[in-house]
Amino acid sequence: MNGDRRTNLAAATTSGVSMLIAAAGSVIGALAGFDLSPETWPSDARVAIAGIAACTVCAASADLSEPALTWLRRRLGLRTGRPTDAPTAPSLDESVDLAATAVKDDAVIRAASAAWHLDHSYGFLDHASQWQGHEDGTATYYLAPGILLHHRTERNGRGLAMPHFTLLTGDDRELPVDHVKEIHAYLLTRAARDGSADDPTELPATV
Question: 0.85 exceeded by the pTM?
Fold first, then answer.
C-alpha cells in the first residue's frame, strides 16, 4: 500500500510540474504575442496572434522540459520506458487505421475551433458533431442539400497555418467565406432561386 501511495504521489508530482511548465509557457507566449503584434492591428488579430504564440511556446517548453521531467521520473522511481516497448503494441495496419481516425478527428476539432473566425456567436458552426473530417486533414459542414462549408488550413506568408473556409455549392465552384453573413446571403439567394424553380405558379419566361 505504501508503495502504491509513493508511486501515485510521484506521478502527481511530475504531472503537476509538467502542467506548471506548460501553463507558464502559454502565459509567456500569449503576453509576448500580444505585446509584439502592432498596436494598429485589430484586437481580434492581436488576440489570434497571442493564441498562436501561446500554443507555440507551450509546445516548445514541453519539448525542452522533457529531459528534466524524465530525470525527475527516474529519481522518483517511475517507469520511463518507451511506448514501443509495450507488449501490446498495435500492428502496422492497426496503426494506419488509428492514424487515419486521428487525422479525421483532428480535422473536425480544428474546423469547429476555427469557426469563431466566421461566427462569434458560438452557436452555429462551432459544434464538432456537425463537422465531418477527412483523411486529407480537411472537414466539411452540411448546410443544406448540395451546399457544404469546407474548412482547410493554409500557410500564410509568415509560415503560420491559418483557417480557410469555402462554400461548396454542388456546381464545381468554391466560394471563399470570411463571415457568417456571407453564408446567410448565399443561402437566401439559393432558397429564392430554388423556390422559384419549384413554384408551380411561376410562369416560364417568354422569349
Answer: no
